[in-house]
Design a protein that fits this description.
Layout: H1 11-14, H2 27-34, H3 46-49, H4 59-69, H5 75-83, E1 98-101, E2 104-107, H6 149-172, E3 177-184, E4 187-192, E5 201-204, E6 212-214, E7 216-217, E8 220-221, H7 224-238
Antiparallel strand pairs: 1-2, 3-4, 4-5, 5-6, 7-8
Helix pairs in contact: 2-7
Length: 245
Amino acid sequence: MPTSERTDISMFEVGTLKDVGGLWAGVRERVEVLAGRRGASKIFGASDHGFALAAPLAEEQLRGWEARAGVTLPIQYRSFLTEVAAAGAGPNYGLLGFGVTDGIAHWVGDPWRGPERLNLRTVFPHRDAFQPVLPDSVPELEAGQFDTPAAHAEAERQRAELVQTLQEREETDTHGTIPLAHQGCGYYDLLVVNGPDAGHIWFDGRAADGPISPQTDDDGRITFDRWYLTWLARAEEQCAPHATP
């Protein structure tokens, strides 16, 4: 993926509903059309989402959820949820998102990134890529490494404490973000919603001991609207009907 050091001035940073007026016009219809296109099933992830979209959230449903979660969502994502869909077709294996029960919106996520792991009150403090230290990276200890059984036991105790600390930190590494989509193999697209990089998309590569890093293209850091609309345009191009002679 191309990268750039310039950070774009996004509509999120302007921060008013007026700035996103018309942004999502016709998008739901464009996605639904793709479901009937020849070749649509070959789009990566389409076997999971099938180009189906959940109903949008009502404004009052979203406001209620935001109040409970203690956060105001970035404006492009927020407007998508109320104008296009609460979840469904999107990049990779589809857009994770919300369900509605008895008129109340709730975050659903997936089996690996469900509501119990969503903590948006905590600030995501990063602006640059970082490499988390993962619990699996702590080496095992052999008794033969130590002079006495007591020394071995003490080292095992300290190792267990370190692993516990890293496990707890692993839970917090993505606090302040929403997992938007599963890329497969445990990789995720994240949307920062609380912190200095709020409104931008990050990549979580911890499944292969990789970094957590901002996603960029030639225009700078990627916002939710660019992330989603770029996927849609590419899907349309791949499914474009061929002209007949």
